Amino acid sequence: MSLPTTEEIIDDISFFDDWEEKYRYVIELGRAYDALDEALRTDALRVDGCASQVWMRPQTDNGLFSFQGASDAIIVSGLVAILAALYNDTT
């Protein structure tokens, strides 16, 4: 699955009436997110201070920022997917 655009995320979240639907939406994003390869989930890329395991790999290419991430918690994977949708390919 390709990541939704920022506008699509806003539209989708706005469409749902209650927090449970929004929560399920974030979970579905996490399940569909093409996460960071297992071999790259190292201590060097782990985010300290999180209750769940989270890894983020930032990169720049031709002046554009992007990152890959992963988590062992599906809701956090959804949040990582949202961050990637918001910030990948930005300056």
Description of the molecule:
The protein is α+β, with helices and mostly antiparallel strands. The chain has helices at 6-15, 19-32, 74-87; strands at 54-61, 64-71. A two-stranded antiparallel ribbon has the order 1-2. Helix 2 packs across helix 3. The two termini are 24 Å apart.
Continuous helix count? 3
Q: What's the pLDDT, averaged over the residues? A: 93
Dominant shape: globular
Q: What is the succession of H and E elements?
A: HHEEH
Helical residue percent band: 40-55%
Q: Which regions are unreliable across 5 or more consecutive residues at pLDDT < 50?
A: none
Count of extended strands: 2
Structural class designation = alpha+beta
Share of residues in strands: 15-25%
State the major sheet. Answer: 2 strands, antiparallel
Break the fold down into its secondary structure elements and pairings.
Elements: H1 6-15, H2 19-32, E1 54-61, E2 64-71, H3 74-87
Antiparallel strand pairs: 1-2
Summarize the structure.
The protein has 91 residues and is α+β, with helices and mostly antiparallel strands. It is built from three helices and two strands, in the order H-H-E-E-H.
